[in-house]
Amino acid sequence: MTQTNAETPGLIALDWGTSSLRAYLLGAASGTVLDRRAGPWGVTRVPEGDFAAVLDAVIGAWRARSPGLPAIASGMIGSSRGWVDVPYCSCPAGLDELAAALASVPDDALRIVPGLVRPGDAPDVMRGEETEILGALALRPELALRSVLVLPGTHSKWVTVAGGRIENFATYMTGELFAVLRDHSILGGAARDAAVDDAAVDDTGVDETRVEETAVRAAFARGVTAARESAGGLAPILFSARALVVTGRLAAGASLDYVSGMLIGDELRCGLAGMGVPAVGATPDAALRIALVGDAALCRRYAAAFRLWGVGDVAVVDGAAPAGLWRIARRAALVARARGGA
């Protein structure tokens, strides 16, 4: 993408995960995104582990135009598989703790945000989501007082925020479980077979897009409802994805959407129960806001699941990663603070 904004660049912000890298050139005055790059340069896909070479290839042109431009990154780049293994900050934590614990890579080419650890007998960790959370609070300040932020993904996070700080969090392996069931279980077989059969059928000229979309939505809603109504949780109902297809009550091509609905529904069942919302039609404490943070398409799917639970007032926050990196960089004095800014 070509830089078109006339604002002076002030920071390079990188969301550097396991499989992908997103880089943002942010304006010095307000953190506005001036330019961006993205590609499959995640920490597990860096040739020969040469992170410096990848970094130069991605942001070299920006630094050539603006020598000395600081750079900050969050995500798995700070893990044991990344450039440097940055120690976790202990939760609860907020902007001050994260900014004070930034780590540097060799030659100070980049600062890396630490992740968070929730101590205890069953500890939990996050890397990258803490930055998205701080960005979401900047974009939607009303969430800072008291909220639950849900970050859907391979490892979904449910995060409790109070007074602008991350108080607690829990991880749900929803996305990874879906991938395992899709690719390595009998539940994914019907959908794979259906895809092959569909590819072999000649085009009849009939537009079935609307019918297919309706079937997909219905299958997903059916899965969410099954999880919501299952007194025994997820385990006793998973095989229904197979049984419904075998008995002709669910189209094979929509069976994975049913599985997705069950997995997301079970995540909501557990997460909402922890908030005191165990049943459909109930609502959380009116003072407690709920928001979804992350990929827009995935957030829409989760929002649909929330509505099936009778929880409809769920905000969706996009673009949180660069906003969070900007806040942390300013607090760490990597860039000058705007007057009155955090």
What is the secondary structure topology, with strand pairs?
Elements: E1 9-16, E2 21-27, E3 33-39, H1 51-65, E4 71-74, E5 89-90, H2 95-100, E6 103-104, E7 111-112, E8 116-118, E9 124-126, H3 129-139, E10 146-151, E11 156-162, E12 165-172, H4 174-184, H5 186-200, H6 209-229, H7 240-246, H8 255-274, E13 289-293, H9 296-308, E14 314-317, H10 320-331
Parallel strand pairs: 1-4, 4-7, 5-8, 10-13, 13-14
Antiparallel strand pairs: 1-2, 2-3, 6-7, 8-9, 10-11, 11-12
Helix pairs in contact: 3-10, 4-5, 4-8, 6-8
- What ranges have pLDDT less than 50 throughout 5 or more consecutive residues? 198-211
Sum up the overall morphology in one term.
globular
Percent range of helical residues: 25-40%
Radius of gyration: 22 Å
Walk me through what this model shows:
The chain is an alpha/beta fold and 342 residues long. 38% of the residues lie in helices and 20% in strands. The protein has ten helices and 14 strands. It has helices at 51-65, 95-100, 129-139, 174-184, 186-200, 209-229, 240-246, 255-274, 296-308, 320-331, and strands at 9-16, 21-27, 33-39, 71-74, 89-90, 103-104, 111-112, 116-118, 124-126, 146-151, 156-162, 165-172, 289-293, 314-317. The strands form three sheets. Strands 3-2-1-4-7-6 form a six-stranded mixed β-sheet, sandwiched between helices. A hairpin with a 5-residue loop joins β8 (116-118) and β9. The protein is globular, with a radius of gyration of 22 Å.
